[in-house]
Amino acid sequence: MTSLPPQPISPLDGRYRKAVEGLGDTLSEAGLNKARVHVEVEWLAYLTSHSLLGGTPMGDDQLASLREWAQNFGQAEIDELAETEKTTQHDVKAVEYLVRARLESQGLGHLAELTHVCCTSEDINNLSYALTVKQAVADVWRPKFVAVIDELERQAQGYRDLAMMSRTHGQPATPTTLGKEIAVFVHRLRRQLRQIDQVEYLGKFSGATGTFAAHLAADPSADWETISREFVEGLGLTWNPLTTQIESHDWQAELYSRMAHANRILHNLATDVWSYISIGYFRQTPVAGATGSSTMPHKVNPIRFENAEANLELSNALLDSLAETLVTSRWQRDLTDSSAQRNIGVAFGHSVLALDNILKGLGQIDAAPEVLAADLDSNWEVLGEAIQTVIRAEVTAGRSTISDPYAALKELTRGRRIGQAELVEFVEGLEIGDEAKQRLLALTPAGYVGSAAKLLSYL
């Protein structure tokens, strides 16, 4: 059999590449190496600018040129690193040699020995992962997440007064409004976003076992803890002073757990919208030229929400695994985290793809007011709650002697469909005050929504 040309194994790099392509700038192997080069160059710049370990300051033009090269890391550097790693069999060492070569080409060979000095590979890696994950959240995942929240709020406000039958346990229940139900998701998702925004991106820079041993051997007079703090914070990260060889990854576990929680709320949203579509509360807008079924031409399938469900589940499988795996390291170091962290981009990718589908799906649905109204008009029995509650209040106020109002309404309504006429007849025969009776007679399922619309003011 003839083999296919090289093909992507993951659909994120194939069928769905366009939806997630922004993540490749940070959470790919190349994105990680670009960050590593950036960290190595900035450490060299720090050492020389502070005249540490025999280094002398670079000229402004030399430093600007070196930083520009790191910033423009591209295909030439990717290819060179791949070739070097064939020999080194070590990715961070290949990065060190790449930076050394650049220094030589810029006439800065006298500084070459300061490249990667006092660093263990994990000093470079932990900072690089923190930088790339932070950027991926800020530049790709968060904007998609916020776009979904914004669209949900737009729809919540638009449908704030549109009465809708609730379905607790799948059964007709006290009515609400469609806008209020959507607003619940807005409120939940915004709370998760605030927690994600509060995550600290930690970084360590303290040598082979977190003790600054090599640093102090090279220069016992330097305040290496302050130097480490300044360097890490200068990269826009939070300094972690107490670590082993690795930064302990607790911040990553916290971030991924919160992202997984956000994903689960989105999954709940997707299943609810899917269900509302199935009972006709939402109409789907057919996409020109699209096929809903290979055999049933009438169908418009809710595929956006189904796709989102699957991708949220895949994302969470990885996010949960990362959060569980990364917090454990044998003694001062093992490499379990190294393999696990290479899948961060996959976890993010499935979440971003789900967000993309949810946003598109929300843009292809409209409420069906006539369906919602008909459903409400077919379920007058839901007013039983209001009636028995009013009777209880009337009994307490001394305006009624009815015993066990709940039982009376249960006998009338449980497991039965009753209409307006039956309910009116029942209310008119009640021994309650006239004001309360008139209030109940004026009540309809569509009007029994309490403060649903008003609650949107909490968004």
UniProtKB/TrEMBL annotation:
GO terms for molecular function: (S)-2-(5-amino-1-(5-phospho-D-ribosyl)imidazole-4-carboxamido) succinate lyase (fumarate-forming) activity; N6-(1,2-dicarboxyethyl)AMP AMP-lyase (fumarate-forming) activity. It holds the Pfam family ASL_C. Keywords: Lyase, Purine biosynthesis. It catalyses: (2S)-2-[5-amino-1-(5-phospho-beta-D-ribosyl)imidazole-4-carboxamido]succinate = 5-amino-1-(5-phospho-beta-D-ribosyl)imidazole-4-carboxamide + fumarate; N(6)-(1,2-dicarboxyethyl)-AMP = fumarate + AMP. The keyword Lyase applies. Its EC number is 4.3.2.2. SUPFAM superfamilies: L-aspartase-like. Pathway: Purine metabolism; IMP biosynthesis via de novo pathway; 5-amino-1-(5-phospho-D-ribosyl)imidazole-4-carboxamide from 5-amino-1-(5-phospho-D-ribosyl)imidazole-4-carboxylate: step 2/2; Purine metabolism; AMP biosynthesis via de novo pathway; AMP from IMP: step 2/2. It comes from the Bacteria. Signal peptide: none annotated. Residues 14-308 form the Fumarate lyase N-terminal domain. Residues 329-449 form the Adenylosuccinate lyase PurB C-terminal domain. Gene3D superfamilies: Fumarase/aspartase (C-terminal domain), Fumarase/aspartase (Central domain), Fumarase/aspartase (N-terminal domain). One of its GO terms (biological process) is 'de novo' AMP biosynthetic process. NCBIfam families: PRK09285.1 (NF006764), purB (TIGR00928). Belongs to the lyase 1 family. Adenylosuccinate lyase subfamily. Catalyzes two reactions in de novo purine nucleotide biosynthesis. Catalyzes the breakdown of 5-aminoimidazole- (N-succinylocarboxamide) ribotide (SAICAR or 2-[5-amino-1-(5-phospho-beta-D-ribosyl)imidazole-4-carboxamido]succinate) to 5-aminoimidazole-4-carboxamide ribotide (AICAR or 5-amino-1-(5-phospho-beta-D-ribosyl)imidazole-4-carboxamide) and fumarate, and of adenylosuccinate (ADS or N(6)-(1,2-dicarboxyethyl)-AMP) to adenosine monophosphate (AMP) and fumarate. This is Adenylosuccinate lyase.
